[in-house]
Amino acid sequence: MRVIDKYRPSRIVERFAEQIAHAAKGFPILDVACGSGRNADIFVRLGCNVLCLDQNLSQLESRYTQETMPSRLKLLKADLINDTWPVGVASVGGIINIHFLLPNLFPAFAESLIAGGYLVIETVPGCGGNYVQLPKVNQLRTELSQMFEFEFYKENPVGPATCEAVTVRLAAKRKSDRESSSQ
């Protein structure tokens, strides 16, 4: 029987972690809807500062005591649906957004991310009826292509064929404002 490590980062985060850390140029990595912080851990180990953003930080706080909380980990509490975006312009070197998709945050992601910084997104898997909350074919590619250059983009169809829903895993670099406006 295989033991599952519930604190193991997403595979796409593992795959791109070193590139993300390097491209961040000392700016913190933002883990959006961080949950237990499983995706933040790899960046802390790589020497990055990480902002863990979530509406409820109890999963992450339950993993550490005040003494064992890594000093490179900063917690930021916000309701991503109702609150104002809490991250400043060009203030983060990477954004990790795993299993929480809110496309209306994409402009805020682009504004907060430094040029050349990575955005990594992985939608929830296509289990049960959750295909209704998943994007349509090419939706994320279309919405992000003006501000981001894709290094990896993979869609998998889920649900009934008529719904055109897909799961998405992507890693993309933020274009400079000059590159974005020339398209």
Keywords:
183 residues; alpha/beta; 7-stranded mixed β-sheet; 7 strands
Task: Tell me about this structure.
Strand 2 (50-54), helix 3 (58-61) and strand 3 form a beta-alpha-beta unit. The chain has a single domain, classed as Vaccinia Virus protein VP39 (Rossmann fold). The mean pLDDT is 92. The protein has 183 residues and is of the alpha/beta class. 23% of the residues lie in helices and 28% in strands. The protein starts with 10 loop residues before the first helix and ends with a helix. A seven-stranded mixed β-sheet has the order 3-2-1-4-5-7-6.
* CATH level 4 superfamily: Vaccinia Virus protein VP39
Percent range for β-strand residues? 25-35%
Query: Tell me, what is the CATH class?
Result: Alpha Beta
Helical percent range?
10-25%
Cα end-to-end separation: 51 Å
The general outline is: globular
Largest sheet: 7 strands, mixed
Number of strands: 7
- What assembly state would you assign to the polypeptide chains in this entry? single chain
Overall number of structural domains: 1
The arrangement of helices and strands along the chain is: HEHEHEEHEHEEH
State the helix count: 6
Task: Tell me the Rg in angstroms.
Answer: 16 Å
CATH topology annotation: Rossmann fold
| CATH architecture assignment name | 3-Layer(aba) Sandwich
Mean pLDDT: 92
Name the strands of the widest sheet in spatial order: 3-2-1-4-5-7-6
Q: In terms of structural class, how would the helical and strand content be classed?
A: alpha/beta
Poorly predicted parts? none
